[in-house]
Amino acid sequence: LARNLVFTTIVFSQLLRAFGARSNTKTFWKLGVFSNLWLLGVVIVTVLTQISLHYIPLTQSVFKLSPLSLSDLALIWPVALIPVTAIELRKWIMGILKSKKQ
Predict the structure, then answer these.
(1) Average pLDDT over residues 42-60
(2) pTM here?
(3) Which of 2, 32, 68, 89 is the most exposed place for a label (fewest CB within 10 A)?
């Protein structure tokens, strides 16, 4: 189970980080979720694929995965948010520092 949690957390973390990597200066909130529909589509398809890997018997056996419970998902998402939160905080702080210099 631990391997499943780590695997899925890393996948979700990288998907969320992709939203933060769209700009070095503008935060996720300024850009918005819908500013890059291709990225949004890829993220949605990948999340659905990742979750389905845990519930389809063939993929469960191939990847040696087990189903994730709601409590597992409740643990995965906050941890997956850490990298993108760090990226967004850095942008926000850099924006404040830049505005103080001007």
Answers:
(1) 93
(2) 0.82
(3) 2
